[in-house]
Amino acid sequence: MTAPALDLHDSDASQVLRRVFGYDEFREGQGEIIEHVVAGGDALVLMPTGGGKSLCYQIPALVRRGTGVVVSPLIALMQDQVDALRALGVRADFLNSSLDYDQQRVVEATFRAGELDLLYLAPERLRLESTQKLLDGGDIALFAIDEAHCVSQWGHDFRPDYLALSALHERWPDVPRIALTATATPATHQEIAGRLRLEDARHFVASFDRPNIQYRITPKTEPRRQLLELLRTEHAGDAGIVYCLSRSSVEKIAEFLVANGIPALPYHAGLDAGTRAANQARFLREDGVVIVATIAFGMGIDKPDVRFVAHLDLPKSVEGYYQETGRAGRDGLPSTAWLAYGLQDVVQLRKLVETSDGDDAHRRRQGRHLDSMLALCETVECRRVQLLAYFGQEGKPCGNCDTCLTPPESWDGTIAAQKVLSAVYRLDRERRQRFGAGHVIDILMGKKTPKVIQFDHDELTVFGVGADLSANEWRGVVRQLLARGLLAVEPDHGTLALTDGSASVLRREREVLMRREPERTPKAKLAKAAKAAAAELPEEAAPVFEKLRAWRAASAKEQGVPPYVVFHDKTLREIATVRPSSLEELSTVNGVGENKLAKYGQQILDTLAE
Ligand code: ADP
Ligand code: ZN
């Protein structure tokens, strides 16, 4: 299938934006970056997911002479990327291990003939001398290095083949290089620049804020019920991702959702490749599918209409949390990032860090990552401000996170903290046996459980001193002490132990302010805020939108591409609201470029006329 070539001769960047992509304006940063690369400059681009990184190399590739060579680790997604470009009339193709010999030959010949605007390559392929020879035989407009954080050895996505990309500018010194990533603490940023030899490149750092994502972190009480309530009350019929830590919980949660009438599919590294590919394809191609996954799922998934990302387990770092939640709402429409976390998560992850492989420095680094994540969970300030601060950026209280919408109450938990710590101290002195959080809470609440009786713990002075708080509130106290390092988890048995910080609390040298545990998440206000944001679509436009969606589903199916390759939700919403009556009017809608106008324009008008 060759795409019909648009004649872009002499078009400048803004004309290409309008004619090919159907957009009127560049987003923040895009214009400058594109101008710089079109002029032949090297660039390192840090932009959040959904910020619009692809245009930053696609437009220069179209404006400059020759083929833009895109290095990407995401072989499984290349076909979709290429399909999406072809739907716009761009001549794109890819070379990776999924092609047979003859198919490769065809792509290579097209490249040599100068008939490709964009060529996607896996990094391991670019290392081959044969590939480099091929590139020498053609005209290269630029090199784009996507997911550039894969060059970072400390990140979780390290790909050794990325290290070799530093040699690109030795072999092709005149070809501009643009590296792009959505992962970037200041340290990762420096590492990428160094390893890709981009020190002299211009660095473009966009704001990492994702204003359309509503961040919510809620205490985990009954995770399944909480998840189901979220999906039923706020995200019925929506596509979304549910992240779990283990393969077995992925399987169980997927089954649970299916049993409750929600179209959910599992995804984890233990499934065979065929099942994984099939589940991913259904998530991308059908409307309203929920994927339940370990973090093995998601990098490079550019489905624009993921309406929610739910975490049922605590992510190990803020960076991971930001990456995973960032997969929601690429299309800019209101979306939810929801995390339920509880005492067990803290205990489990602390233990995991303590017993992890690697040297002390590695463990300390992991410990710091976890501390930052816990601080984000326990904050009484705006989540977004804290999240941005982690990336070295400033923000204002956002009005679109749980702490802004329902400010948490804080209370003086010093005495409660002392009760917990002295109970742990008394138990620790026994040395005979170690006890976990549940047992400590039973003692404080004065419960005569078999274990309490067996060890005569009803005779301890702390027995029953905590009848003023509920078990749930005590779990909150223990969790917050662990989160702040005022209490520790023994790696061997997962039991509680005192830390250096504990002593100062026991000696009343410091106050401990705690976040109050809601007995039930107050969600009326949140739901109202989410609805207000989603209410962009006027009431009378809703049935028209559904009609257009049905037309899109049929058209996508016929062509074997994901629906968003035909049109994004955002474009369909605008069409449903504006109801254009001519092709000319339709062409002014965002996301309707020349190629799509020619291909679908009449069908859209017919659908609207019905
Ligand atoms: P990233 O790769 O940074 O995650 P994408 O390049 O996939 O982001 O872009 C995210 C979404 O924003 C896509 O749906 C894209 O079509 C859209 N988009 C990008 N640039 C613009 C623009 N200038 N105007 C309108 N929509 C845009
Ligand atoms: Zn906020």
Helix and strand arrangement:
Elements: H1 13-21, H2 30-38, E1 43-46, H3 53-63, E2 67-71, H4 75-87, E3 92-95, H5 101-112, E4 118-121, H6 123-126, H7 129-136, E5 140-145, H8 168-171, E6 177-181, H9 186-195, E7 202-205, E8 213-219, H10 223-234, E9 239-243, H11 247-259, E10 264-267, H12 273-285, E11 290-293, E12 306-311, H13 318-325, E13 335-341, H14 343-354, H15 360-378, H16 383-390, H17 402-405, E14 410-412, H18 414-430, H19 437-445, H20 450-454, H21 471-483, E15 487-489, E16 496-498, H22 500-506, E17 513-515, H23 524-534, H24 542-559, H25 563-566, H26 569-578, H27 583-586, H28 594-609
Parallel strand pairs: 1-6, 1-7, 2-4, 2-5, 3-4, 5-6, 8-13, 9-11, 9-12, 10-11, 12-13
Antiparallel strand pairs: 14-17, 15-16
Helix pairs in contact: 2-3, 14-15, 14-21, 18-19, 19-21, 24-26
The protein binds adenosine-5'-diphosphate and zinc ion.
